[in-house]
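Risk register update: the risk of archive-format incompatibility is retired. Evidence:
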Amino acid sequence: MTSPLSRRTRGVSSVDLATDGPHPGEVKQAWVYRQIRDGILGGALPAGARLPSTRSLAERWQLARMTVEAAYDQLRGEGYLVSAVGSGTYVSATLPDRFVTAAAACPPARGGTAAPAPASAAEAPRAAPFGARLADAALFPLDEWRRLLAGCARRITPAQLSADEPLGAWPLREQIAHYLGTARGIACDAGQVIVLSGIRHALDLSARLLLSAGDQVLIEDPAYMNAEPIFRQYAARVVPLPVDQDGFAPAAARRYRRARLAYVTPAHQSPLGMAMPAARRMALLDWAGQNDCWILEDDYDSEFNYERLPLPALKSLDEGDRVIHCGSFNKTLFAALRIGYAVLPRRLVPAFSELRRITGRSNSVIEQLALAEFLRSGAFARHLRRARAAYQQRRDRVLQCLREAVGEAALRVSGEQAGFHFVWWLPPGLDEAAVLAAARAHGLRLESLSALCHRVSLPPGVLVGFSAWQDEEVVRLGEMLRGLLRRR
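Archived output:
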């Protein structure tokens, strides 16, 4: 295999990457993705470096062009790459991993010694506990998934293997439309559904299609960490609007007459956790209609409500057909699945289809068909019920740990009614930096609230994930908290 990506200066062509072989069982698309992503994070591919065309790289690495296109598409969707029509594909100036506050080990410098790959998935290191937005893959019914994958592989037809459908496999799109109609009140059909690699992919495609130079994008403040860098690639101005007790405020948005797109998390504001009430949702839709503005609805964790049923999705109220509704199975099932979706306004379907065709096709057809059967058979609903009960118990355990450490009267949290995390508002005498440092010292992961704020200033707080931990880690959390409080 030839060495990929010859060394050039920034913006001219590309940069050398020393390649290793695929890991045991690693598919070619995942190998291409890993080579380029590791090159970006390790510094071999700096910001602004131009990558070769998919055709050129496929020839040099002796792969099918479709394989390289799929890897490029995933890297674009996750914020590592950006493409300019007629110019090429470049390393993004702002990488998603720079916004992650976990104490993850840095990748080795080029020429350094990397840690050996685990011999099996069972030996792979666990994510640090208490991180936000993390589903616990141990809850996923893996044996049932293996059976579905094997069955789909046996039954798949040559026509399905050669299908050229940029919006995704039709059976999966049908099942997603049915699920959203039942669970989120969205009256849509399969023709409006597009299969993507996740929510970031939906944000990237939407921004690329809908934004022009000079447009304004309105986002919540504080906000999901990866939204702003994605939008900034395509818009001249990203405007953070402070949320209030009901979330995104349309009254504040009225000052921005050049707003073309608004990004919101109405079901469970990310990261503070409030739900947008019905009256506010109607006001938001009215504002969008009056200002000819599109709305991106990130419905990232609505499946996990612990106290009450969630309100129907914003898209369910969308009579003007201005809402792009985004969701992800990476949050409900397991992170490595890399299958998400969006429900599109009908007038945008042809444009999204063409953009998807140009930027790369959808995910593995066998995994899409297996997921369609997972939804159709009721396995998805059963998994959600089991996972919801497990996460609620874990949330209660972590809250009790905090309550015992700081006292009932001093404990203030928000957003605990849903999702995978809540905000812990720190008591007097504790500052965010000290808490985060202590967590790292104990091998735990708490996340900074201030890092998610753009202009707004909030009291000190941290994000506490509760979906993926083990008993001894809750014990360490309690020890850490008691130690911090003794030193106040």
